[in-house]
Design goal:
Layout: E1 22-26, H1 31-42, E2 46-51, H2 54-63, E3 70-75, H3 81-95, E4 100-103, H4 118-146, E5 149-154, H5 167-186, E6 191-198, H6 212-221, H7 228-240, E7 249-252
Parallel strand pairs: 1-2, 1-4, 2-3, 4-5, 5-6, 6-7
Helix pairs in contact: 1-7, 3-4, 4-5
Length: 258
């Protein structure tokens, strides 16, 4: 498929349909990231899917091989600033532009603070906060030079509430919300900024919890979940809006979650 020339993304083609966009997705090997990448490729966009688990990315690429868009798997560690910069640069060189960055990579090893699992705290800060900042640092100059671009941050309802065992996780997600809102306020109107905050979603995140008490609490908390595609639908909606419409924030959660 032909990638849209600079300045064409989001504009209507001869048929009246929006031109395909070049969209970068981090944390695309499973869960929400994989669902976002698959949905956008299915909608005709050119997706560059980044994650550390390249075997999962290759499976995703195979699954979307017949999609009207394209999906290019790329190894990515969002905690490495140079790696993220190279991820964005390579996508721009491959497609001629970058239209959107979906910052989805995240970890959630919950625990009580008195468990003192400081290595896990550090990991959440590195991935959930620094990883987001690395993406902004890499993509913002590109969007500024193009005169267009769209940042989408996958935060969490944890950005709006704190529950036991989730103090550090909620702190990182509030930081993600705050950073993204600050980016929106500071950015030129040609650059759109969206925060999507999922509630309880079926994913592998809970599998990383090593604290027994937190793991038990999470099993109860996750009694009702929604599909990752529900979040992918929200991302797709935000990206599909005309250039003069900026969807700032979407919260999506199961009807049972209060």
């Amino acid at each position: 498929m032909t990638t849209p020339p600079p300045g064409a993304a989001g504009s209507a083609g001869p048929s009246g349909a929006a031109a395909p966009k070049v969209v970068l997705v981090t944390g695309a090997s499973s869960g929400i990231g994989a669902a976002v990448a698959e949905r956008l490729a299915g909608a005709g966009h050119h997706v560059v899917a980044g994650a550390r688990r390249t075997d999962r990315l290759r499976t995703l690429a195979d699954r979307t091989a017949a999609a009207p868009g394209s999906l290019h798997p790329t190894r990515l560690d969002v905690t490495d600033r140079d790696d993220v910069a190279a991820f964005v640069t390579a996508a721009r060189e491959r497609h001629g532009r970058v239209d959107a960055l979906v910052s989805n990579a995240g970890v959630m090893p919950l625990s009580r603070l008195d468990s003192l699992l400081t290595d896990e705290w550090d990991r959440m800060i590195d991935v959930n906060v620094r990883g987001l900042l690395h993406g902004i640092a890499a993509a913002l100059p590109v969007f500024t030079a193009q005169g267009s671009g769209h940042f989408v941050t996958i935060a969490s309802v944890g950005a709006h509430e704190v529950v036991p065992t989730a103090a550090v996780y909620c702190a990182t997600k509030y930081a993600a919300w705050a950073i993204t809102e600050g980016l929106r306020q500071e950015s030129d109107p040609s650059i759109r900024v969206t925060t999507v905050s999922p509630g309880v979603v079926a994913s592998e995140l809970a599998d990383t919890i090593t604290d027994p008490g937190a793991a038990a609490a999470m099993r109860t908390y996750r009694a009702h979940t929604i599909s990752p595609d529900a979040i992918a639908s929200a991302v797709s909606y935000a990206l599909a809006q005309p250039p003069d419409i900026d969807v700032n924030e979407i919260v999506v959660r199961p009807t049972h979650q209060r």
